[in-house]
Task: inverse folding
């Protein structure tokens, strides 16, 4: 009888973690990560972790939005394994616009793609107040996307590591791996033989992938005891969607910007002002909030902004999740692994 | 029939009259496909939001890959000092002395600051730049910019990104009539192909647009539609439209009516 296959997972960001959670019971898993267990420069460590298939259908193709719906359904069972509870919420998204940006809200609403019976509801101020009493009187029109949700990415990072550490997964941190374009079989990683390699390095694979680029995003995390929001609020902005996503303990993630740049240096003053003033205009309680962290990072993306799964012998490459990491990861990774491993 | 002369920008000639922007597309791939569908020969690029020169290189490479003439712009600048610095950076990065000068005076509707624009234009022209100023549709401002030595002017149709079309056709016509030899390009505010067509019918040499294509449901098809509209507008201008009349004039003589009533 054959033993469990030996699998190397390269990259311990969001995709690497999801892959490890899906594989560790059936395989001997070794994780290789260029940084430490926090993978704190990975896109998933910085994201607002929105699960917004309907809103994203405005900018992505229907098949991706549907993959997002599938992922939404998979997250609860994936998180249920973890010892530390990870905040997961599916109470919809509220979308609002200031009077000057009403045109953007209208065109957004026209571009929502029909998605398996999931529909947006047009709201007047009374309904907005019912959903989010603390926003009473601030907005007169909005949209409610009931199928959407979010999770706490930091808790997921923490909890997935804690859980995998207790299983027999082997971790190799501060270990950068270069992968040959046409790997041998079985694949040799760091002198060890593996039956399968799952390449989840994101921008770490940039040298081997000509059209992979970084798209800069900036995001703030604040503690705002004076603000109570029941669900993420998306504010229309002329250049990028700004989400104010409530996490447990009155923490809020505000972001993210989207800039065609591979600069991962600190956030600019302009972006800081845009993000924080957006939050303040939604709820004045943010004026006394404490800024816990304000970060900039890069999202890995291909030129069509679609994720890519490539099977090359026993190497499976999953990359280019762009701004849709949490939205797509469970369904995308599970589909990628289903050819041979799951 | 008017004589068809090519679009001339500081001595260089072009046959296509649709200049296209490179921002706000759903993906870089769709941007490239839209530019091809538009048939544009000139593409504008913004350097401002790239944080550092090296960091934006991949994106600029995508634009250079289109093989088109690059027109860098100073979008996002609010002062003379900022535009001058950025113009110099653009000259280095894109190896061109062309600069689309955008100097914002009002943050909300992104209206150009006419006074600072004159100052910055003069500085940059003296520094050897070929300046294409983005300005409001004010005749006197356009005359002043011409007097400084600009060979191309780019008055707006409407505020950037509004898609409202030519808000003040009278002003735009006046500028066309009073500056007959100037290369005039309507820049900003167009939403529909018919707006572009209207600008070309008026005798404008070209239009520059971005959001109308990038923000369309299908940018590639919309790029094609704008390309047709620009051709139609140019042909109409060359063909010289019939004069407008206040009363109806039947195109067919009416039988049985005295000729002096016809």
Result:
């Amino acid at each position: 009888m054959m033993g469990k296959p030996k699998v190397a997972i390269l990259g311990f960001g969001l995709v690497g973690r999801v892959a490890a959670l899906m594989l560790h019971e059936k395989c001997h898993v070794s994780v290789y990560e260029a940084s430490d267990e926090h993978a704190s420069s990975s896109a998933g460590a910085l994201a607002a972790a929105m699960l917004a298939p309907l809103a994203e259908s405005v900018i992505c193709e229907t098949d991706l939005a549907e993959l997002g719906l599938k992922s939404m359904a998979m997250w609860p069972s994936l998180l249920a394994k973890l010892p530390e509870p990870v905040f997961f919420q599916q109470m919809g998204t509220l979308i609002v616009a200031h009077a000057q940006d009403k045109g953007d809200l209208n065109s957004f609403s026209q571009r929502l793609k029909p998605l398996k019976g999931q529909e947006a509801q047009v709201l007047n101020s009374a309904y907005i107040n019912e959903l989010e009493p603390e926003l009473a009187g601030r907005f007169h029109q909005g949209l409610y996307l009931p199928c959407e949700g979010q999770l706490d990415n930091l808790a997921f990072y923490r909890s997935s590591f804690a859980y995998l550490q207790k299983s027999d997964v082997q971790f190799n941190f501060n270990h950068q791996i270069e992968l040959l374009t046409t790997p041998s079989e079985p694949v040799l990683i760091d002198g060890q033989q593996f039956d399968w390699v799952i390449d989840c390095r994101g921008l770490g694979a940039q040298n081997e992938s000509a059209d992979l680029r970084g798209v800069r995003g900036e995001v703030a995390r604040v503690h705002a005891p004076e603000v109570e929001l029941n669900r993420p609020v998306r504010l229309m902005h002329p250049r990028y969607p700004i989400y104010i996503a409530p996490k447990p303990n009155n923490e809020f993630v505000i972001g993210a910007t989207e800039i065609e740049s591979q600069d991962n240096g600190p956030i600019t003053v302009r972006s800081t002002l845009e993000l924080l003033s957006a939050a303040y205009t939604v709820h004045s309680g943010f004026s006394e909030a404490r800024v816990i962290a304000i970060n900039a990072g890069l999202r890995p993306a291909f030129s069509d902004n679609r994720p890519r799964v490539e099977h090359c012998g026993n190497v499976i490459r999953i990359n280019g999740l762009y701004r849709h990491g949490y939205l797509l990861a469970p369904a995308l990774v599970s589909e990628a692994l289903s050819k041979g491993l799951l | 029939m008017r004589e068809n002369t090519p679009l001339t920008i500081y001595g260089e000639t072009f046959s296509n009259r649709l200049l296209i922007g490179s921002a706000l597309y759903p993906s870089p791939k769709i941007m490239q496909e839209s530019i091809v569908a538009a048939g544009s020969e000139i593409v504008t690029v913004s350097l401002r939001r790239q944080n550092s020169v090296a960091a934006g290189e991949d994106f600029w490479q995508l634009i250079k890959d289109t093989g088109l003439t690059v027109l860098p712009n100073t979008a996002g600048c609010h002062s003379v000092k900022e535009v001058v610095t950025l113009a110099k950076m653009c000259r280095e990065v894109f190896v061109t002395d062309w600069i689309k000068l955008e100097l914002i005076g009002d943050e909300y509707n992104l209206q150009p600051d006419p006074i600072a624009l004159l100052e910055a234009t003069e500085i940059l022209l003296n520094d050897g730049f070929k300046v294409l100023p983005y300005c409001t549709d004010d005749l006197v401002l356009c005359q002043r910019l011409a007097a400084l030595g600009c060979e191309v002017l780019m008055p707006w149709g409407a505020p950037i990104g509004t898609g409202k079309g030519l808000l003040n056709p009278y002003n735009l016509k006046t500028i066309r009539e009073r500056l007959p030899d100037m290369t005039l390009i309507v820049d900003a505010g167009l939403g529909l192909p018919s707006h572009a067509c209207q600008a070309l019918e008026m005798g404008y040499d070209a239009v520059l647009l971005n959001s109308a294509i990038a923000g369309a449901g299908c940018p590639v098809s919309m790029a094609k539609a704008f390309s047709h509209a620009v051709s139609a507008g140019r042909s109409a201008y060359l063909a010289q439209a019939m004069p407008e009349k206040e009363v109806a004039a039947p195109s067919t003589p009416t039988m049985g009516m005295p000729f002096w009533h016809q």
